[in-house]
Design a protein that fits this description.
By secondary structure, this protein is mainly β. It has a single domain, classed as Regulator of chromosome condensation 1/beta-lactamase-inhibitor protein II (Methylamine Dehydrogenase, Chain H). The protein is 10% helix and 35% strand.
């Protein structure tokens, strides 16, 4: 599978299939993997200025702008070609404006990058240049921008990060640097907007 994020947050690659095809073809030639098109899951996540690629072997690759360490390679050096971050054990990815998230095969949630509002949920507002463990529960999906939401397999929706306009739904406008419960049961799907 290949998941990627390109363009501005207002783009929705599910609405623009031709753009998605062009991006996938570009990755096909960029990665030089002739089996890649057969391995692509026809879905994409939306990033801002970086892309995250999950190959069928579970390896995680990133490319693009690397301010705040969003590529997860331990630096802030931009990358114009994909670099490998993990060699195995990744099953899903998610992007935000300046942060990369991924779910490992053990269903734990990890992330790297921008954290000034607590988007990474590690109890701090310190940017992370290498992936950190965020949640050890059974995570099935993650999305975010300036706030982050993630779903556990038991239907619990959790969130963290910027909350000035109340996107975390906890009745406050206070930023959250650690995951809080947004809804405690029966959540089957969600989407996270900008702020």
């Amino acid at each position: 599978m290949v998941y990627l994020g390109v363009g501005h947050s207002s783009f929705n690659l599910r609405i623009f299939p031709i753009l998605k095809l062009l991006v996938l073809l570009s990755l096909f030639f960029l990665l030089g993997n002739y089996k890649l098109l057969a391995e692509v899951n026809a879905s994409a996540t939306v990033g801002y200025t970086h892309s995250v690629i999950l190959k069928t072997d579970g390896s995680l690759w990133t490319t693009g702008l690397n301010t705040y360490g969003r590529l997860g390679d331990g630096t802030t050096t931009n990358q114009s070609s994909p670099i490998q971050i993990l060699s195995t054990e990744v099953k899903k990815v998610g992007l935000s404006d300046k942060t990369t998230f991924f779910i490992k095969t053990d269903n734990t949630l990890w992330g790297a990058g921008y954290n000034s509002g607590g988007q990474l949920g590690d109890g701090t507002t310190t940017d992370r240049y290498t992936p950190i463990s965020i949640w050890t529960g059974n995570v099935s999906k993650v999305e975010g921008f300036y706030h982050t939401l993630f779903l556990e397999s038991n239907g619990t929706l959790r969130g963290m990060g910027y909350n000035a306009r109340g996107p975390l739904g906890n009745g406050t406008t206070t930023d959250q640097t650690s995951p809080i419960v947004v809804m405690d049961s029966n959540v089957s799907e969600f989407a996270a907007g900008n702020r």
